[in-house]
Amino acid sequence: MSEVAARLSAIRHRIADAAARVGREPGEITLVGVSKRQPAARVRAALEAGLRDVGENYLQEAVARHAELMQAPGPPHGSSVRWHFIGQLQRNKVRQLVPIFDVVQTLDRESLGDELERRCAAADRRLEVLVQVDLSNEPRKGGVAPERLPDLLSASERWPSLRITGLMAIPAATAHAEQSRPAFARLRELRDAQRQQPAAAGLRELSMGMSHDFEVAIEEGATIIRVGTALFGEREPG
Description:
9 helices
């Protein structure tokens, strides 16, 4: 077993243990392997070991990696891999994103939703989208303010090519995983409250939790966790 495959197995055991503590099924939780500044060989090793969701932060890096992995012989089995964009997204990059990605987790403003809709409609594509919420008042991370979330969800009714399925957040950095719990609980509460409006009735996903705190996120209801270094090891300098 490769080092990456061993890490993947260990993370799956940790996911199962965290889910069991709160009476959940491990199958409810999607593991997204975050490949930022990772060699393509490590990502391929994870795909060969059974990882099926890959998260990318940087579009140019993603385009190159996607081409390398998808064109090589053997696994990763082409369409069985789901590609998630999890970085901040500029409108002028959407054209490059639409042909590659299956999920965008960082919608945070109406103008970006309009551009995603326009490009998806032109390409005859449907895209799964999560709305990123700023829970820590850190604009550099992106995200819509919680008080503006209802308006953004209402605007989604004019985007038939986008399927809004949940919320995503990147809480403030903490020294200990347990310190992230209030932010995770807050995102769950926001999702549950928004389900009352027609435009948000389909919200089910909660993308929260990374390498250092994903077990706490699972205990608070995460359905998607984004794990990088715990899966792939330390990133290459960049």
